[in-house]
């Protein structure tokens, strides 16, 4: 498929700077792009690459005034580029259709119109699966699970008993939803399991990466809010509530009964203790260890996590520690010399000390 730059600008709601007749035949990253490709720059630190790329045109934000290549300036270059990828490089994935005779389907299972179940999937009794939902090979869906319409469960996803999935939920391979929360009572050195009798609710338009674990509640519900996106290798414990449109990046761990607000960003390897609240629009930076509640519209970093500006100042001081140690050692030597000099002078000036 090929389009002119003017056509692309119309499709993504942008404006052309340069030759609108430039012909685009593909989409690619800024480093890999070749003549005929359109690429994008959303992060200011990559602006310098606009002078090096071989792409024929670049999608940028509206703050970019000039580049050595024709531009399409937009409000959201990342979203515009994603739109172009969908149009010019559509996915060739073909999902399975129908119910494989090698699937195991229990009693009283309700299948919506166009639902598909691939070979070796196991669907237990009393499950409801919505219209056009696709369940790939090796998935396990437990008793009384409810799955909405247009969902996609990739191979080897496990959905335990009584879990609820909304519409348009995507879950990638190896993820387990509804495992028991980690709850034990220790008596005389022995750990006794506390029953986990709650459930998990995944609301509409959630996407969950590979090898994620979301535990069922001890009582009540663990909830993942509408539109939230979860990266690979994330652990979410029992009774956690995650608000709408939150981003949770890889290797994040959230302890039990924590409430995460709306539009929150939890960056990679962040750790959140239990029974606290992360306010709406908060950003928890990578590898932060959050030990107490974070107010809305706040950025935190460090372990224990602190407001971002303070954490940066502390980090700057830490980076200077070797030089500061050398300075302190030098000052200590000078102080010792000064004390020795002053002590010698005092002895010389005191006749009583001289006689002694």
Summarize the structure.
This protein has 356 residues and is of the alpha/beta class. Helix content is 19%, strand content 28%.
Task: Tell me about this structure.
By secondary structure, the protein is of the alpha/beta class. It has three domains: 3-88, Udp-n-acetylmuramoylalanyl-d-glutamate--2,6- Diaminopimelate Ligase, Chain: A, domain 1 (3-Layer(aba) Sandwich), CATH 3.40.1390; 104-310, UDP N-Acetylglucosamine Acyltransferase, domain 1 (3 Solenoid); 321-355. 19% of the residues lie in helices and 28% in strands. It contains five helices and 39 strands. The strands form six sheets. It has an eleven-stranded mixed sheet with strand order 10-13-16-19-24-27-30-33-36-38-39, with helices on one face. Strand 21 (184-187) and strand 22 (190-193) form a beta hairpin. The longest helix is centred in the last third of the chain and has 29 residues, at 321-349. It is flat, with a radius of gyration of 30 Å. The N and C termini lie far apart (104 Å). 34% of the residues are buried. The model has no long low-confidence stretch (mean pLDDT 93).
